[in-house]
Recover the amino acids of this structure.
């Protein structure tokens, strides 16, 4: 089948929006840029992992040690994205395994996350824990400060969480580092962090965004790893399913256009 010049011109006009869409949905390769995000709303997340979904929450009033977590485990986000969590083991044999708790007023476990948040905690040395009355500054208790590593089954545009260290007697630096799926470093940032027992949602938010969906692993850590590290829900800026649909459609139509051109 052959096409006249006039027919080819009409075809090019007809498929111009498609070609433009292909360029928009599947941009030319460029060097990705990553940047620090310190506000959850600024991340623009469209997915989330809430640690309460693990179904294992430590209750300090009626301790059940069967809810302790392994240092490595897997979970899924609200939208079904698989994640692998790895919390580096501590060298302190007195520290408990990691666990999830819901931060609540005394006799619950207080923190400077929002009241009711489910917190993933690296672990604590219970021999050094002394219950304190409300309003008493927390001197800090030795625990497992990680690092915490979160790997995504599918690369994302960004992710982040609020983070705290179980001590208020010193100012620490908290870090976030991002890697791609071949373990190349994408970016590393830090912010100063001061913890408390105020239940006032003042725990700092630490996130990373990229201009492409290339973040496969995030690592959270602190400058004081002898104190327990804690994070609340993880917000994720994942690749919307509609993007993949458009990409597949674009590839399909572009293949049709190419075949038509080859036939001429």
């Amino acid at each position: 089948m052959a096409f006249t010049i006039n027919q080819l011109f009409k075809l090019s006009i007809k498929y111009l929006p498609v070609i433009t869409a292909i360029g928009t949905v599947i941009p030319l390769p460029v060097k990705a840029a990553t940047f620090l995000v310190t506000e959850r709303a600024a991340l623009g997340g469209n997915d989330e992992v809430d640690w309460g979904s693990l179904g294992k929450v430590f209750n300090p009033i009626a301790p059940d040690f069967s809810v302790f977590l392994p240092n490595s485990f897997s979970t899924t986000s609200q939208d079904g994205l698989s994640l692998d969590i790895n919390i580096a083991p501590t060298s302190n044999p007195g520290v408990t395994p990691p666990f999830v708790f819901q931060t609540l007023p005394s006799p619950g476990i207080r923190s400077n996350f929002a009241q009711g948040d489910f917190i993933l905690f690296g672990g604590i040395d219970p021999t050094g824990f002394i219950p304190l009355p409300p309003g008493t500054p927390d001197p800090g208790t030795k625990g497992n400060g990680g690092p915490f590593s979160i790997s995504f089954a599918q690369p994302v545009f960004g992710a982040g969480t609020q983070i705290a260290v179980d001590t208020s007697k010193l100012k620490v630096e908290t870090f976030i580092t991002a890697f791609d799926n071949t373990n190349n470093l994408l970016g590393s940032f830090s912010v100063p962090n001061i913890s408390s027992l105020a239940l006032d949602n003042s725990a700092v938010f630490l996130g990373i965004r990229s201009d492409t969906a290339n973040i496969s692993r995030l690592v959270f850590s602190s400058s004081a790893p002898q104190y327990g590290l804690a994070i609340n829900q993880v917000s994720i800026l994942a690749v919307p399913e509609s993007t993949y649909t458009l990409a597949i459609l674009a590839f399909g139509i572009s293949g049709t256009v190419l075949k038509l051109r080859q036939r001429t």
In short: The mean pLDDT is 84.
